[in-house]
Write a structure and sequence with these properties.
The chain is α+β, with helices and mostly antiparallel strands and about 230 residues long. The protein is about 50% helix and about 10% strand. It is built from nine helices and four strands; from the N terminus they run αββββαααααααα. The termini are far apart.
């Protein structure tokens, strides 16, 4: 199960820099396939030859990349935002985890002969875990398996799941976190929105009182303002 290699410790600063150097962009499908560009953010140029992926993956990849880039955006602004306690570490772990998942998909794309039935076992398992467990940390997967001993996620056919209903429910529940409010494009996020996204990430990760630090910062700012008068 993919949660079994969810990192216990966050990546190093250098590892984060390497991950954040690359931004992926998926383009709408044409002729049964779609393209994904890996863009070097330092130079705004392609980092490698574009990946060709079967079109059934498009909706999944679009939402996956939104989540990956949301976490990276929060991490990039960690010194500017009021983050819930524990969010920084978990965000970094998710960045490394999602990067490993997407790399597995693109390695498959690079070395596989393209066809409409082409699948990535690793990415499919990620999707199944997302569908049933609603989270990817090891403790979440272990608890789900304990409560559902008769279901084996590894043997579930991802193509048989009702993704239309699943994603519609996700959008209805929290359109900001799901990305639908921004058309799943991180470049549509205004700088003033990042605190909202950070709090949405904290809620997704089950962190308690995501506004606690924000309230403390506001009180500190009020005291500083008063002392300067």
């Amino acid at each position: 199960m993919t949660d079994l290699f969810f990192p216990i410790n966050p990546p190093t600063h250098h590892e984060l820099q390497l991950i954040e150097l690359i931004r992926y962009k998926a383009f709408p499908p044409e002729g049964g396939k779609f393209m994904v560009h890996a863009i070097n953010t330092d130079y705004n140029t392609l980092a490698c030859v574009p990946f060709v992926v079967p079109s059934p993956y498009y909706e999944h990849i679009k939402r996956f990349l939104w989540r990956h880039q949301l976490f990276m955006g929060v991490e990039k602004r960690r010194d500017e935002l009021a983050l819930a306690v524990g969010l920084c570490k978990q965000t970094q772990c998710y960045i490394a985890y999602l990067d490993a998942i997407i790399e597995g998909l693109f390695i498959k794309a690079r070395w596989s002969e393209f066809g409409l039935d082409w699948r990535s076992d690793l990415f499919d398992l990620y999707l199944v875990v997302d569908y049933f467990v609603h989270g990817h940390k090891y403790n979440q997967g272990a608890l789900w398996r304990l409560n559902n001993p008769d279901q084996i996620l590894e043997v579930i056919d991802v193509t048989t799941l009702d993704w239309e209903t699943f994603y519609a429910a996700s959008d209805d529940s929290d359109a900001i976190w799901s990305g639908s409010s921004y058309q799943f494009d991180i470049t549509n996020v205004g700088e003033g929105d990042w605190q909202i996204l950070a709090d949405a990430a904290a809620n997704y990760l089950g962190l308690i009182n995501p506004q606690v630090k924000l309230q403390k910062r506001q009180r500190g700012h009020q005291r500083a303002t008063s002392s300067n008068k």
